[in-house]
Write a structure and sequence with these properties.
This protein is α/β, with parallel strands linked by helices. Helices cover 47% and strands 15% of the residues. It is globular. It starts with 7 loop residues before the first strand and ends in a 7-residue tail after the last strand.
């Protein structure tokens, strides 16, 4: 399948985890991919693993100048821009009374401001060509999760941003949607297990117990949903959030 033949995708936070799985999925289906990550060396290493044309770009998504430079480089080196996946994210978990102002600001800056800046930079190209796909990474935690006031607020904010941009940009042929993963086994969730003093396998088992399918997600599961929303098969879908969570939000 070559759904993305001739398309250029920019994916943030793509050096590892869900971001890299998405980059690999889109590349395998014909896209040229810009792997954007705060760690430029890691971005380059990740890009080198992809089939087809790719480039690794270092960028701080919370900084407007850095974002503009990254998007301009992707367009110049890959020949255009058609798909943007706002995946970059961090966690600074803590209960409210222990959470610092910096914990709050960092999470908001990367998740929410980052998606705003990246989409603002990309939409200039999308509007001109009257075509574009934006997929934002929300989370099941948007519905509330103990110890994640900052992360939950940012992820629900992304859903509001998604709906609003769906309204604003729809007339220009631009689809804006979000994917909200449930528990996914990644380096980020493994780090949470370590922080909590738990064995990674036990942490994953408990994550699996929290949904009707009794399994945890893999980065490839989320990448498949992102690929669909990035494709022309989803051209009549915009402003929506797709929960990919094993059914955890059903009850």
């Amino acid at each position: 399948m070559n759904r993305f033949e001739g398309r250029v995708a920019v994916i943030t936070g793509a050096a590892r985890g869900i971001g890299f799985a998405t980059a690999a999925r889109l590349a395998e289906e014909g896209a040229a991919v810009a792997v954007v990550d705060l760690d430029e060396a890691a971005a380059g290493e990740a890009a080198a693993k992809l089939p087809g044309k790719s480039v690794g770009i270092g960028a701080d998504v919370s900084d407007a100048a850095s974002v503009d430079a990254a998007v301009a480089r992707a367009v110049e080196e890959l020949g255009g821009l058609h798909i943007l996946v706002n995946n970059a994210g961090v966690t600074r978990d803590n209960l409210l009374f222990k959470m610092t102002e910096q914990d709050w600001d960092v999470v908001m800056a990367v998740h929410l401001k980052g998606a705003f800046l990246m989409t603002k930079a990309a939409q200039k190209h999308f509007v001109e060509q009257r075509y574009g796909k934006v997929v934002n990474l929300s989370s099941m935690s948007a519905l509330g999760n103990r110890g994640q006031a900052n992360y939950s607020a940012a992820k629900m904010g992304l859903q509001g941003l998604t709906r609003t941009l769906g309204i604003e940009l729809g007339g220009f042929g631009i689809n804006v949607n979000a994917v909200a993963p449930g528990f996914v086994a990644t380096e980020m969730t493994d780090a949470t297990a370590v922080r909590l003093g738990m064995e990674i396998d036990e942490f994953r088992r408990l994550g699996a117990e929290g949904n009707p399918l009794k399994t945890f997600g893999k980065p490839e599961d989320i990448a498949a949903a992102i690929a669909f929303l990035s494709s022309d098969e989803a051209s009549y879908i915009t402003g929506q959030t797709l929960y990919v969570d094993g059914g955890a939000t059903l009850g």
